[in-house]
Design a protein that fits this description.
mainly beta; 49% strand; four-stranded antiparallel beta sheet; single chain
C-alpha cells in the first residue's frame, strides 16, 4: 500500500508538472514583444517594451530606454535591431540604431546619425539600408547599415516639392512615408505637399537608390500620407491625410495603377493618419484624427483588391498609429492625446472591433510595433 501511495503521488506530481510546463509553453507561443514609441514632451522617457499575449490581450511591462521623441520605429527583418527616429524640428533631428534582445525586451544604443532633415516621422529598412521621411525637412534620407547594425552617416537625400493647393498644409515640402516595395527593387515616398508618390529604383541590395524614375499623381489637395502593400504583392493602398480618402492600386514591378478611391474620413476632419491590412488580407483599417477620432473598417475584395466600407470604430484622441497582432486577434491603437493604448478585439469574420477595456496607460504613445518570439 505504501509503495502504491508513493507511486500515485509521483504520478500526480509528474502530471501536474507536465500540465504546468504545457501551460507555460502555450503562453510563450502566444507572447509577442511589443515596442512603443512616444513623444517625450510629457512624462514619457522614450521607447517602452512590453510582453503582449496575443491570445489574452494582456500586456506586461518589460523595459524602457531614454531617447528624445521616438515617434516612429521599426525592426530589422531578423528582429536583431531597432531603428527609431528622434523627431526634432531642428538640426538635432536624428535616426537611432539599437541592438534588440526580443526575449528580454531590452534595447542598447549602437549609434545615432543626423537625418539632415527636420521632423523625421517615418522609418523603414530592408536590412541593408534605413530610410527616413523627414516631414518638415521635405526630404527622404538614406543610411547604409554597417555589419553590426549601426548606421553610417546619411549618404543620399531626395527632396520633395510643394505644389499642392492647400496654402496652410502644403506651403512647404513634406515627405511623410518612405518604404521598400515587396520585391525590394524600388523605394516609394509620399510627397505630401505635391500630391504624388515618388518612385526610385534599387536593383541590388547594396546600391543606393537611383534617380527618380516615375511619379504617381494624386488628386490635388489630397495630402498622401501612408502607403502599404498587400502580402500577395498584387495591391497597394494609400491613405490621404487631407482628403480623408483611401486609394487602391494594382501593383506590378514598380507600377501603381489606381483602381478605386473610397472615403475613410466622412466628416472631412483632414486628419487621416495610418493604414493597415489584417494579416489574412480580408480587411483594411484606416485611422482618422481631429474630429470623431476612430478607425474606418473596409472589407477587401479578394479577386479585385477593391474596398467596401463595413464599419467605423470610435477610439481615444489622436490615433496617429495603430497595429494588428500577427494572429489577427487584436488591433492596438496609440491614442496620443488620451495618453493610452487601446486594445480592441477583432471579429475575424466581420472585421469589426470590440473595445476590451485593457487599456495600456502611458504618456503620448504614437507608434506600436511587434516582434514574434520564435
Amino acid at each position: 500500500m505504501f509503495r502504491l501511495v508513493i507511486g500515485l503521488c509521483a504520478a500526480s506530481m509528474l502530471s501536474s508538472a507536465c500540465t504546468t510546463r504545457n501551460a507555460s509553453q502555450q503562453r510563450a507561443e502566444h507572447e509577442l514583444t511589443m515596442l512603443v514609441g512616444t513623444y517625450t514632451s510629457g512624462s514619457s522617457k522614450g521607447i517602452y517594451t512590453f510582453r503582449f499575449n496575443e491570445e489574452s490581450g494582456v500586456a506586461t511591462p518589460l523595459s524602457e530606454i531614454e531617447v528624445s521623441n521616438p515617434s516612429y520605429l521599426t525592426l530589422s527583418p531578423d528582429n536583431r535591431f531597432v531603428y527609431a527616429v528622434s523627431e526634432e524640428n531642428d538640426s538635432t533631428a536624428a535616426i537611432n540604431a539599437f541592438a534588440f534582445d526580443k526575449k528580454k525586451g531590452t534595447l542598447t544604443l549602437l549609434n545615432k546619425q543626423r537625418t539632415k532633415g527636420e521632423d523625421p516621422c517615418y522609418v523603414a529598412t530592408d536590412g541593408k539600408k534605413v530610410l527616413t521621411a523627414n516631414y518638415s525637412g521635405g526630404t527622404m534620407s538614406v543610411f547604409p547599415i554597417r555589419y553590426d547594425g549601426s548606421l553610417e552617416s546619411v549618404d543620399t537625400l531626395f527632396q520633395g516639392t510643394a505644389s499642392g493647393p492647400d496654402p496652410d498644409r502644403q506651403a512647404t515640402p513634406h515627405i511623410h512615408c518612405t518604404l521598400f516595395s515587396p520585391d525590394g527593387n524600388y523605394i516609394f515616398a509620399t510627397d505630401f505637399s505635391a500630391d504624388r508618390i515618388l518612385r526610385y529604383a534599387v536593383h541590388s541590395k547594396e546600391e543606393l537608390p537611383r534617380p527618380l524614375a516615375e511619379t504617381v499623381n494624386i488628386q490635388p489637395g489630397s495630402g498622401p500620407r501612408h502607403l502599404i502593400f498587400s502580402k500577395d504583392r498584387k495591391y497597394a493602398y494609400l491613405i490621404n491625410e487631407l482628403s480623408g480618402k483611401v486609394i487602391a492600386f494594382t501593383y506590378s514591378d514598380g507600377r501603381l495603377n489606381e483602381i478605386q478611391t473610397i472615403v475613410a474620413d466622412t466628416i472631412q476632419a483632414r486628419g487621416s493618419a495610418d493604414i493597415h491590412l489584417s494579416p489574412d488580407g480580408k480587411y483594411l483599417y484606416a485611422s482618422n484624427r481631429l474630429k470623431e477620432d476612430g478607425i474606418a473598417i473596409f472589407e477587401v475584395n479578394p479577386e479585385k483588391g477593391t474596398l467596401a466600407k463595413v464599419g467605423y470604430q470610435l477610439t481615444g484622441l489622436h490615433p496617429r498609429h495603430f497595429n494588428i497582432t500577427p494572429n489577427g486577434k487584436f488591433l492596438l491603437v496609440a491614442c496620443r492625446d488620451s495618453n493610452m493604448i487601446q486594445v480592441f478585439e477583432r471579429d475575424t469574420v466581420s472585421g469589426l472591433l470590440k473595445n476590451t477595456g485593457k487599456n495600456i496607460k502611458m504618456s503620448k504613445p504614437v507608434c506600436i510595433q511587434f516582434a514574434e518570439n520564435k
